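Let's inspect a concrete specimen:
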Amino acid sequence: MDEIRVAIIDDHAIVRQGLRAMIDREPDLRVVGEAPSARLATAMLDRARPRVVLLDLKLTEGSECDGLSLCATITRRYPDAKVLVLTSSADEWLILESIKQGAKGFVLKDVDVTELIRAIRAVHRGESAFDSRTAGVVVRWMRGSQHPGATASDITPREREILSLLARGLSNVAIGQRLYISAATVKFHVGNVMQKLGARRRAEAVYAASKLGLI
């Protein structure tokens, strides 16, 4: 039986250790590398050359953007490695963005061990793998239920300024102080630009703006 080489990218050591223990019990699976961050992941991947990468999207506190960017990097630089997202959030935008960035599957961290092992083997075969809670999102997306996003021309210069400051983690009050406008005005602009970008959270708006080259 061919051995499936697996890498784990997760910022929690105890999670990596637990996953390694579960995966290495399977006769056809072997963990060949681990990394706690996007910064250290590429060196590990260069060395380990896995066929399946288990990727947590939240590699930095409060943001999934690093994980999504790393997903895109892995699929571009390591075409033989299949990304299986293993994370704690089932937000629809995360699921869809993961797929757009090349992930072959998306499962939540409370998934049953048997289902996780099945998902690893599936993405290794080139198939898609989703748990019961994320599969419905994918089906709706494939049926064309998602709405087209904004283009760069839809975003005003003021909204671009605000997006840039949001990306730096500033609050409405701090943004207002920088731009000499009230916090209420900032809140209005933030709500408007989030609606344009189809975002429900600030991190989602920042990520969508970065994909459009706005920040």
In short: The mean pLDDT is 87. DSSP finds ten helices and six strands in the chain. The domain at 152-211 is CATH 1.10.10.10 (Arc Repressor Mutant, subunit A).
